[in-house]
Design a protein that fits this description.
The chain has a domain at 40-109. It has helices at residues 3-13, 29-32, 40-64, 69-74, 80-105. The two termini are 40 Å apart. It has 110 residues and is mainly alpha-helical. Helix 3 (40-64) packs across helix 5 (80-105). The chain crosses the membrane at residues 42-65, 77-104. Keywords: Membrane, Transmembrane, Transmembrane helix.
Length: 110
């Protein structure tokens, strides 16, 4: 028998503790969404509609209208989907950066 075969047998005998990965973490929607018990889905849908729209309107107010209320009023705010899409991109970027930061801070020894 060769030395490396002996080492493989010893390694197979030892039990390895499997580490929990960041992706295997359980996510509870109750911790993320402020809503009454049983209405989490409805509130999540409302949040998905309103938060990106408000974020997009704020971005348009400061970036496009340069914080001038008269210029902001002249913008076509009736295009709900366009304003929502702008806000969605901003919110999605913030969420992805926060998930990345949580990944970097994740301690698998727990």
């Amino acid at each position: 028998m060769y030395y490396n075969q002996l080492k493989r047998e010893d390694a197979a005998k030892r039990k390895r503790r499997k580490k929990k990965s960041f992706a295997s973490k359980e996510i509870e929607i109750n911790e993320m969404v402020w809503a009454p018990e049983g209405y989490e889905g409805i509130f999540l849908f409302i949040y998905i509609l309103t938060i990106p729209y408000i974020t997009g309107a704020i971005f348009l107010f400061f970036a496009v209208a340069q914080a001038d209320f008269d210029s902001f009023i002249k913008l076509n705010m009736t295009a709900f989907f366009i304003v929502w899409a702008i806000g969605y991109e901003i919110v999605a970027t913030i969420l992805l950066v926060s998930i990345f930061i949580m990944f970097l801070k994740y301690d698998d020894s727990k």
